[in-house]
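User: I'll paste a sequence; please echo it back and then give the predicted structure.

Assistant: Echoing your sequence first, then the prediction.
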Amino acid sequence: MLPDDLVVLDDTRGMRSLLALLGPESPACRAARVLLAAHEPLLLCTGFPVQDTSETDGPAGTVALARALRELGRDVTVVSWAEALAAWAPALGALPTRALRRGRAPERLSGALVTVEACGRTATGAYLNVRGEDVRERAPWFEDAVGTHALVSFGDGGNEFGMGSAPSGWFEARRVEKPASTCDVLVVGQVSNWAVLAVVAALGRVTDRDLLPLPDDYQALLEALAANGVVDGVRRVAEPTEDGFELGRARAILVALRRWLSAPG
């Protein structure tokens, strides 16, 4: 069992099919090695606009990854739009941040790019959510700030930054327009946050450390986000859940990943 198998539950959004096309080796384990080998500061770009706010999928996983990487001595900065960063402040704590303005070309940033559930620009310039709505006026234009190629990208639907590296054949049967952005390693999950947690587990396997958040601590992250108006991206209400899954599902994911981390071999 690979960590990726624990965070891709079914093929509702095509993630099981896509995972099978990404090669025999675990994308999460590849991503862990790539992140550990990076010498540049890491820019962790996240935040998907939902109505007038952002969703819980993205920031929670980004915080878990940022904390793990900092514990391993890496230089990380969380990048998103200013209002989202303000809403996430209780969850971000002392993590360094960089704010972009939405709906316009931002200043250029320097560093190695990691994207987590970030809306990806299409060849026509649109930023499409899962409903096919163009949210370009509310989305941060990460492509203009950091370029169109990421070191690692995380997604769960096909419209995220980095999904341009998914095989074109996978998109033929999907109602998703392929983003133009690409990445060295694409990691997918039923929820992007869970794909990030798989990489955190893989980082722990490589370094012989348990870097995963405790289930109660991770739930507290989601609760802090919801308390500041961050919404479940599917339900579109401020609840401490992710993509419509029931309360506590992330707890089961973390238990399974910790079991994988402690297993021999």
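The CA atoms of residues 234 and 244 lie 5 Å apart. The beta strands are 42-46, 49-50, 53-54, 76-81, 97-100, 112-116, 149-155, 182-188.
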